[in-house]
Amino acid sequence: MSELKQMDYSSLQHLHDQAKKAFDIIKQENLSLNMARGKPSVEQLELSLELLNSVNSENIGDNFSILNYGVVDGIPEAKVLFKEILEVDTEEILIGGNASLNIMHDLISKALLKGVIDSEAPWGKEENIKFICPVPGYDRHFTICEAYDIEMISVDMLEDGPDMDKVEELVRNDASIKGMWSVPKYSNPDGITYSDEVVERLAKMETKAKDFKIFWDNAYVVHDLTDNPPRLKNILEACKKHGNPDRVFMFASTSKITFPGAGVSAVAASKDNIDFIKEQISVQTIGPDKVNQLRHVRFFKNYDNVLAHMKKHAEIMKPKFDAVLNILQEKLGSYGIATWAEPKGGYFISLNTMDGCAAEVISLAKEAGVTLTGAGAAFPYGKDPRDRNIRIAPSFPTLEEVEKAIEVLCICIILVSTNKLL
Amino acid sequence: MSELKQMDYSSLQHLHDQAKKAFDIIKQENLSLNMARGKPSVEQLELSLELLNSVNSENIGDNFSILNYGVVDGIPEAKVLFKEILEVDTEEILIGGNASLNIMHDLISKALLKGVIDSEAPWGKEENIKFICPVPGYDRHFTICEAYDIEMISVDMLEDGPDMDKVEELVRNDASIKGMWSVPKYSNPDGITYSDEVVERLAKMETKAKDFKIFWDNAYVVHDLTDNPPRLKNILEACKKHGNPDRVFMFASTSKITFPGAGVSAVAASKDNIDFIKEQISVQTIGPDKVNQLRHVRFFKNYDNVLAHMKKHAEIMKPKFDAVLNILQEKLGSYGIATWAEPKGGYFISLNTMDGCAAEVISLAKEAGVTLTGAGAAFPYGKDPRDRNIRIAPSFPTLEEVEKAIEVLCICIILVSTNKLL
Predict the structure, then answer these.
(1) Does the structure's ipTM exceed the value 0.95?
(2) Do A4-44+307-421 and A69-301 have matching folds?
(3) Residues forming a β-bridge with A372
(4) Per the CB < 8 Å rule, is A37 touching B292?
(5) CATH class of segment(s) A4-44+307-421
(6) Which of residues 49-108 of B touch A (CB under 8 A)?
(7) What is the DSSP letter of A34?
(8) Where along chain B do its domains lie?
(9) What is the pLDDT of residues B276-286, one digit of tens each?
(10) pLDDT at site B2
(11) Looking at residue B1, what is its pLDDT?
(12) How far is A130 from chain B (nearest CA, A)?
């Protein structure tokens, strides 16, 4: 195998014809494989089925207050569980409903309507506000910004997190930059964990907006695939140390620990921030579903059990990740037409084709029955400026399906790349 | 018993001294009774305990998609259940999380940020917007308006709903009136059910604001206390008939059917409205807790069972309502110092003292260990202009506690009233 760019015309043509033939055969198979979203598989969901039994009519005891109104910040026992996951104090945490995305959205809509704790005016009263978006990133974050006309400024992800020189320069000079998205551990889709230096610089940097907020979506906080996972520095502590205690909102949920549709979410921040948020949420609701919080508390009992539970997830996920990486290596090897990350956790493998190929690859794969995340999805406004990024989500299909889908993907990449070079 | 206003000085003084003596004795009892909020009692919560078992690891079957992401508008089976409760089609309904208040809040915050289906601009972009608030009403509705600087215009509740002459005049002439709150069946706190004529007039009236919306909080839709409950006219149908299909958002929840903290909520509206809302909610969340929706569907199976279940609630609630009414009649009788409603359902009994007495009565009752809803709570900005309304919530305490609490309340009313007249 040599780099395609070095290949002579006839070798390239031969490779192209082979790929075309393989593609045509596969199309006959009428495949229907979906690697579009980071959804846990049935096998993973089965790991948590006992959770459904942890609160029932027999074992509810005299816990009737849990069924009634109130406790807007979540039950204390759930705070104890999440405080270890997020490494904060119980007074720095608020437990919500089934989706941390919902809390993020609501914090932004409330910031627009009312402002955050240190705002002089609601964000929505300002002419134009902006968020920094490390790219590639999580499409649903960007959708929130787009829906509310928050201008998105892309900043490239480097090997250890967002390009901090760029971030620092932007926030120092532009008062309209009010926030920044981050998936700091096993970033979506690159699988990058922010280095200590990046965390420190985020906590310390000077921001022209006094009410600048980092939305720290720690979605994959315990989603390790190896025994020696990278350690993410605690940004709330760093923010406190540097005199910016109210800068960060940290999020986590059990969506990819227990059930995506029926998990429990949490936000952590400085005590002042949490008190402020609690007051805002009290306008919105009388309280979250406390029964589901209790289910989770009883199912896990403690943090060690959460980690043990995640090892079982890893046992299911790791072979799929390995399969993707092995097949990519085997089929694309040193052709020099694609690079990919080798994440130590999370839900995705991010692949970059040659510039200008991703959309066509994704479209061809779809034609062959393999649905991938839409082209550009990982970028603000759905536009990948280099049209090269493909997010691979291997969790939901079976191992066999993953293998098949990646083989198809490789064929499509070769087809599009050779086409481009010929 | 004669009217206090007709009593001579010494009879009044005697009554006052008796009440004072009774009050002092009660204070020694160190009571701690709470009639402040419309919370179901433990006995009521017990009616639904089996719901906790209706989805478990044994009976989940192959229903794994219910555990995973998606279905932002709720599971079809839940729509089938709620469509009968709200008398709409399944395409006119969206099933949410544990709190309909949350949906109401979110619809308003999205209206402010993005507008409703027929808005030319987001409500928040207009100089000043206003909501009509029938009074007395539900404090949490008013809190949402207050939080977002929506000016509240009080309109008195009459015997069959809000004063429609006033409502029609207001909305016809003022384009800044964008919405109106309503608890149309067993209104909070008066227990009034809107007459057919009121519903018709609301559906038909001319509004200067083209994007005027009625928030139809049908919280007590199946919460009858009698065998011949009043029938509320279907406002969505009426709106359609009069060419205003998008005027109304209807809400219901199982908060006071199953569990206040862990129920299921729903919003119903025209299909166009629901499609519009669904798109807005898709920005906010990937989906509601579908497992809890399935629990409810399996527990109730059908609408008839919901009604049968509500009869059991009524069996628990009715004696408490009767106790309140009997004691009020017995102790205050024809003194002419208080009037009260005799609701046929819902959660509250609304009592009016003489003008200028409510706050003092509530404060005295508190001193004697009986917590009532705060004075003015049922009015915008917490201000009862005549300082006379007291909301009695008899559901949560036991029957004995209710009896005791109302006796205390009556003593406080006599004490404050005689003081005022002496």
Answers:
(1) yes
(2) no
(3) A35
(4) no
(5) alpha beta
(6) 49-50, 52-53, 55-57, 60, 64, 66-71, 97-99, 101-102, 105-106
(7) E
(8) 4-44+307-421, 69-301
(9) 999 999 999 99
(10) 76
(11) 60
(12) 16
pLDDT value for B334: 82
Q: Which of residues 226-285 of B touch A (CB under 8 A)?
A: 255, 259-262, 280, 283-285
CA atoms of B321 and B316, how far apart (whole Å): 10
CA of residue A153 relative to chain centroid, distance: 18
- pLDDT at residue A1, as a whole number: 60
Looking at residue A62, its pLDDT comes to 87
Q: What is the mean pLDDT of residues A210-226?
A: 98
Average pLDDT, rounded, for chain B: 97
- Counting residues of chain A whose pLDDT is more than 70, the rounded percentage is 100
> What token pair was written down for B88?
């709409």
Interstrand relation of A130-135 and A93-95 (parallel, antiparallel or unpaired) = unpaired
Decide if A121 touches B, using CB distance below 8 A. Answer: no
Fold of B69-301: Aspartate Aminotransferase; domain 2 (3.40.640)
* Residues of chain B contacting A99 with CB distance shorter than 8 Å: 285-287
A74-104: pLDDT as tens digits: 999 999 999 999 999 999 999 999 999 999 9
Element (DSSP H or E) covering residue B252 = strand B248-253
B247 to chain A nearest CA, in Å?
22
- Is the CB of B114 inside 8 Å of chain A's CB atoms? yes
Contacts of A97 in chain B (CB under 8 A): 97-98, 289
Residues of B in contact with A39 (CB under 8 A): 68-69
C-alpha distances in Å from residue B195, one per residue of A344, B169, B171, B202, B269: 64, 19, 20, 11, 20
Whole-structure pTM value: 0.97
pLDDT at A2: 76
Distance, in Å, from the CA atom of A321 to the CA atom of B279, rounded to the nearest integer, reads 33
How many contacts, defined by CB atoms under 8 Å, are there between A and B? Answer: 155
What are the backbone angles phi and psi of residue A228, rounded to the nearest 5°? Answer: -120, 70
User: Is the model's pLDDT at A182 over the cut of 70?
Assistant: yes
Among B50, B105, B259, whose Cβ lies nearest the Cβ of A284?
B105
Subunit contact A110:B109, Cβ cutoff 8 A: yes
